[in-house]
Amino acid sequence: MNRKKIIIIGILILMLAVLLYFFFGRKKENGVAFETTVPEKGPIASIITSTGTIQPVDTVAVGTQVSGIIASIYTDYNAQVKKGQLLAELDPTLMQATVDQIKGQLAQAQSNFNYQQINFNRQRELFQVGAISKATYDLATNSYETAQASVNSIKAQLRSAQQNLSFTKIYSPIDGVVLNRSVSVGQTVAASFNTPTLFSLAKDITKMQVQAKVDEADIGDVQMGDRVTFTVDAYIDQTFEGKVSEIRLQPSTSNNVVTYTTIIETSNADMKLKPGMTATVTIYTKEASNVLTVPVSALKLTIEPGQVTPPYRLIENQAADTAQNAVWVLKGNQVFRQAIKVGINDNTKVQVEGGVGAKDSIITAIVSTGQGTPENMGSNPFLPTPRRRR
């Protein structure tokens, strides 16, 4: 092997040794970079989401107490009705016949009563002068009293028959709007066991309520008067306002999920909300405006002593170590844990009521670096160097 080849091989070996040292032989220099933020001022709220159904505040089911055939209907869907307005009428023929029959029975009973009264008066006078026996007088008295009782009984039957006749006319019990009409002319309705519903009336559809189903895990946070917003599919870009007016105690269980009906009052002055619409509800159980907040991630961050390297210095704070809520603060080159008092938590940010100020740098994340690159990466000169954040 000539001298020239030996020199070339030596140079190649030296270059290989330099490259091996550069990639694998150098001691990795580790450092830290902090991601920080400052407390921001703004609104924060704790919310509960649910779904519900739009319903009128007061709905009345109008039915009939007697059976019969619908002879006439005087209203229809969406019609405005007044209290006492005639809505429908059943065929009164049979009811009228019953009234007429009882009137005939009453006339007959009244005639018999009049005869028995005259006979009783005559028998009493004869008995007083001793012209008849006590048995004959008692018989006259019994006939008179029986006739009187018969008249009273038939009068009661007549009042019942007349009342049933009046029930063939269906009147509106309230001022309102007809939501539903369940019958048509010629239809037979039977009121033998329960009252059939003929009409459903809403008292005032300018005021609506949302019947929301709130999960048992959330119902403890809901209070009367809580502010509510909701949307409906018909007006997806519009947000409606309301407030909690009632929390019903009767639970509802579906698929092993227990919910409680929560009533939310809302205005419907523009008549956009219609009965039966599905509402997506947001209940604001707690809310505040113009308060300091920090990310929830800042409270969950943990920093071990070995993670803080020069030029940064870890400062011990034993009081903060035992605090229920604390954040890490970066002040100059000092890193220390600071106890804070928290308020509302919306799972993204948390309200700070004390412990840090608006200008404090709150550490939200710590990034270990080596030669400007993350610790778990080699110091490859061909990879870009990430920017150091403080």
Task: Catalogue the unreliable spans.
Answer: 371-390
Structural class: alpha+beta
Q: Encode the helix/strand succession as letters.
A: HEEEEEEHHEEEEEEEEEHEHEEEEEE
Query: How many separate domains?
Result: 4
End-to-end distance? 59 Å
CATH topology of the largest domain: conserved putative lor/sdh protein from methanococcus maripaludis s2 fold
**Rg, Å, rounded:** 45 Å
Domain CusB-like beta-barrel: 210-285
Organism: Olivibacter oleidegradans
Biased composition (Polar residues): 370-379
Keywords: Membrane, Transmembrane, Transmembrane helix
Brief overview:
The protein has 390 residues and is α+β, with helices and mostly antiparallel strands. The protein is 26% helix and 40% strand.
Q: What tags apply to this protein structure?
A:
390 residues, alpha+beta, conserved putative lor/sdh protein from methanococcus maripaludis s2 fold, Elongation Factor Tu (Ef-tu), domain 3, OB fold (Dihydrolipoamide Acetyltransferase, E2P), six-stranded antiparallel β-barrel, 5 helices, 22 strands, elongated, RND_pump_MFP, transmembrane helix, transmembrane, membrane
Verbal overview:
By secondary structure, the chain is α+β, with helices and mostly antiparallel strands. It has four domains: 30-42 and 292-374, Beta Barrel (conserved putative lor/sdh protein from methanococcus maripaludis s2 fold); 49-57 and 204-288, Elongation Factor Tu (Ef-tu), domain 3 (Beta Barrel); 68-90 and 169-203, OB fold (Dihydrolipoamide Acetyltransferase, E2P), CATH 2.40.50.100; 92-167, Orthogonal Bundle (Helix Hairpins), CATH 1.10.287. 26% of the residues lie in helices and 40% in strands. Strands 1, 16, 17, 18, 21 and 22 form a six-stranded mixed β-sheet that branches. A six-stranded antiparallel beta barrel has the order 2-11-14-13-12-15. A four-stranded antiparallel β-sheet has the order 3-10-8-5, with no helix packed on it. Helix 2 packs antiparallel against helix 3 (134-166). It is elongated, with a radius of gyration of 45 Å. InterPro entries: Beta-barrel_RND_2, MdtA-like_BSH, MdtA-like_HH, RND_pump_MFP. Residues 370-379 have a biased composition (Polar residues).
